[in-house]
Amino acid sequence: MTAPVPATPPYRGRRFAAFLFDMDGTLITSIESANCAWTRWAELRGFDPAHVLSIMHGVRTIETMTRLGVSDPQAEAAWITRQEIEDTEGVTAIEGAAAFLAGIPQDRWAIVTSASRALAEARLGKAGIAIPPVLVTSEDVERGKPDPACFLLGADRLGVDASHCLVFEDTLAGLSAADAAGASGLAITATHRHPLGTAHPAIRDYRGLAVAVAPEGLTIVDAAAAHDKDAAPA
Fold first, then answer.
1. pLDDT tier at 194 (50, 70, 90 boundaries)?
2. Section 51-63 average pLDDT
3. The domain containing residue 142 runs over which residues?
């Protein structure tokens, strides 16, 4: 069943210097591809696939491998990444994401992902999401989410303070990283079957929403109202 668009946009009237977007589960859905690669790996290495799938979302592959206690985390992470790059079947954009992003100036938003750059480029290309000038990937930081380093770096590369940014995320690890960076957080729930369990404002997807751009900042607005305003005679 299609979820209704929220009656009022999240953070109504609040202006932000920039938007920082996670990728998987936030701008695109890649569950089919990721689950296939991780399930195959788990079966080959003798791990319980259900357990592996329960801990791998929202964090860097190298950190999942370290948590699982494999002997060579780097090699195993590289194996997973190769599989995911080769298989982008089922990777699609979250509904409304492309149109929402199209309304934001390129110097006012970034993608901050736990994926490698090669994987991010493959998935974004498959989903039809434009790659922004600022793309922070797993290679850019020593510690992944929930450490705030990735969001701090994304904000810095945009030339703004993280405390003036809104982070779009679909995992608790990512939202915790946003909090630790001093940013505001917005949960995206399109790929979730169960409540995320966070006090952050949440939306299912980007349908019905748009961005109002002003020198003072970016504001999430109702897309229909914004269209009516633009169409009104001067």
1. confident
2. 89
3. 18-29+91-231
- Both 183 and 223 in one domain: the answer is yes
- Asked if 222 is an active-site residue, the reply is no
Could you tell me if residue 178 is inside a domain? yes
- Shared domain check, 97 and 156: yes
Question: How far are the Cα atoms of 124, 125, 138, 140, 165 from residue 135, in angstroms, in the given order?
Answer: 11, 14, 10, 9, 15
The pairing of beta strand 165-169 with beta strand 18-21: parallel
pLDDT for position 2: 45
Catalytically annotated residue among 22, 147, 170, 222: 22
> Is 24 designated active site?
yes
Band of the pLDDT at 74, cuts 50, 70, 90? very high
Whether 140 shows a pLDDT value over 50: the answer reads: yes
Q: Is the pLDDT of residue 153 over 80?
A: yes
Total number of domains in the chain: 2
Catalytic residue among 24, 147, 170, 205: 24
**Residue 111 placed within a domain:** yes
- Contact (CB, 8 A) for 144 and 180: no
Same domain (yes/no): 49, 76:
yes
Evaluate whether residue 11 is within a structural domain.
no
